[in-house]
Specification:
mainly alpha; single chain
């Protein structure tokens, strides 16, 4: 069985065999530099969860005409 690690499969899209490519190394400095990206991603996820959770509170604003609102779906 051939090893799959260390080969670039993108060449398969052009009908060629995969080319050898060294596996990149990750240092502790690289991990520390990625902390702000992780924090921003976590913040964006938290904001979207909050927005989706608040939808039942604000989802009926402006729905329906003449002061009538649509019934909430239960289920």
């Amino acid at each position: 069985m051939n090893r799959l690690v260390g080969y670039n499969p993108v060449n398969l899209l052009g009908g060629q065999k995969p080319a050898p490519q060294p596996v990149p190394t990750t240092t502790q400095s690289d991990l520390v530099k990625s902390i702000p990206v992780g924090m921003c991603s976590a913040g964006a996820h938290g904001a979207s969860v909050l927005a989706l959770g608040a939808d039942p509170l604000f989802g009926q604003v402006g729905v329906g005409g003449g002061g009538q609102s649509l019934p909430l779906a239960c289920g």
